[in-house]
Hints:
The complex is a heterodimer of chains A (about 110) and B (about 110). Chain A has about 110 residues and is an all-beta fold. Chain A contains no helices and twelve strands. The N and C termini of chain A lie far apart (about 40 Å). Chain B has about 110 residues and is an all-beta fold. Chain B is built from no helices and eleven strands. Chain B has strands spanning about 5, 10-15, 20-25, 30-35, 45-50, 55, 65-70, 75-80, 85-95, 100, 105-110. Classes of the chains: A mainly beta (about 110), B mainly beta (about 110).
Amino acid sequence: AQSVTQPDIHITVSEGASLELRCNYSYGATPYLFWYVQSPGQGLQLLLKYFSGDTLVQGIKGFEAEFKRSQSSFNLRKPSVHWSDAAEYFCAVGGPAGDYKLSFGAGTTVTVRA
Amino acid sequence: NAGVTQTPKFQVLKTGQSMTLQCAQDMNHNSMYWYRQDPGMGLRLIYYSASEGTTDKGEVPNGYNVSRLNKREFSLRLESAAPSQTSVYFCASSDPGNEQYFGPGTRLTVT
Lengths: 114, 111
C-alpha cells in the first residue's frame, strides 16, 4: 500500500527566511511524487513533480524538492519565502503499481509573518 | 481553456436528501477522480475512472456512487446524505502517469 506522511502540521516562517517542508512516503516501487499548494478556498495547484532522473526537481514560484530514495523522502524547499506563500501544502505519491492513483499527506499549513 | 469545472460551488442538504455533484474537463484526459477533503486528513479518494466506461472504488466509497457519462464528464451522487458527508469535494483529471489537475471544489454541508 502507498502512503504519505507530512510530519509538520503547521509551520510559521518569517518573510525572507528559508522554508523546508518534510514529506516521507511508502511505495513498493519507484514512486511518482508531487507537491501541490492550496490557497484558502481554492483548488490544488501543482508546484512540482518527480517521475525519474535528476533527484533535485525545480518547480514554480521558486520551489524545489529533492528525492532521496534511501530516506523515502521528498522534501520541499524555498530559499526565501514571500507573504504570498502562505498556504497549505500537500505531498502526494502514486505510480504505475497503484494504477496511478495518488495518496496524499495530511498537509502542512504555512504561515508567513512580516 | 476552463480546465476542470465543478458545480455547484456550495450546497446545503438535509440528512437523507440526495444530490449529484457535476464535474467536467476540457483537457481530453482519460482519467478522472473524486476526492473529499476534511481538516487534518488531506485528500481521500472516493472513486476514480481510469478511462471512459470504467469506474473503481477508492479509499472511502461508502455512501457514494459515480457515473462516467462520457470522456469529459464524471458525476458523484449522494443517494441519502449523512452529516458525515459534510466536506469539500474535489474533482480532478489526468492522463495516466501525469499530474492531476483539480477543480475549484464543492463545499457541502449536511445538517
